[in-house]
Amino acid sequence: MLHELVERELYEALEYTRSIDEENGKRILIQFEIDQPMFAQTLFNVFPSIIGEQSGDAKYQYLAQHFADLCFDVLCVYQKAFGKMPRTFEDDPTWMEQQAGLLDTELAPFLAPLIEKKQLSEKASQKLKEEFFKPKEGEVFQRGLVDFMNMSIDHFAKESGEEYHDSMLDLTKTMLFVVIKLFNNLYLQPAAK
Questions:
Q1: How far apart are CA 139 and CA 160, in angstroms?
Q2: What ranges do the domains of the chain cover?
Q3: Residues 71, 149: Cα–Cα separation, whole Å
Q4: Which of 44, 108, 139, 189 is surrounded by the most beta carbons within 10 Å?
Q5: Could you tell me the mean pLDDT of each successive run of 10 residues in the chain, 193 residues long?
Q6: What is the pTM of this model?
């Protein structure tokens, strides 16, 4: 049953993720593509392309690859902690579209200034971020996993020696937050057959 991962559970799931060899990693990805084709396409193609296509700078391709690697980590954490993935695509082929609609409503205020290349005051920007990242009523919030992913992005940016725009790092963190929300929503579905 889906619940917020406590520190020990999260640590064990992350250790499991780090222990997966290349061959087993490929099997996990193939099974994910079979079970959730649209979700897999979104995580490993659509989202990374949003990051990688920024300003034509190669460094954003590296950030996009790191993002995809972290999506794989999230996938493995959920499988380790919560078991076999529900196969909503078979039961409801529109599940991903429904999720996109829900997320669009939540993301619209946050993304509008980026899309319009509009500068927000620091106060307005901070308020939008707080509202977006605040757990909703009754929502299972994976605080530890979100924090770990944010630290992973910060560590990557620091270790790469590249100067990434803060707005791109924030966008990448926001997209990882969305990925975690999507996995939460997926695991709230009826159990796999």
A1: 35
A2: 7-106+135-187
A3: 9
A4: 44
A5: 92 96 96 88 90 79 94 96 78 71 67 60 67 72 94 94 86 91 83 43
A6: 0.83
pLDDT at 53: 82
Contacts for 30 with CB less than 8 Å, ≥ 6 apart:
none
Instruction: Supply the angle between the helices 58-82 and 7-19 in degrees, to the nearest 10.
Output: 120
CB 96 within 8 A of CB 39: yes
- Indicate the SS3 state at residue 142: coil
Separation CA 110–CA 174 (nearest Å): 10
The whole-angstrom separation of Cα 185 and Cα 90 is 16
* Helix 166-187, helix 122-133: angle, nearest 10: 20
CA–CA separation, 171 and 176 (whole Å): 9
Angle of CA points 171, 150, 114, to nearest 5°:
10
| Overall residue count recorded for the chain in this entry | 193
Q: In the prediction, which pLDDT does 192 show?
A: 41
Residue 189 has φ and ψ, to the nearest 5°, of -70, 165
Q: Say which amino acid occupies 58.
A: A
Residue 122 token pair = 């620091």
Tokens of 24: 């087993």
Q: Which two tokens stand for residue 9?
A: 């559970």
Question: How many whole angstroms separate alpha carbon 150 and alpha carbon 160?
Answer: 15
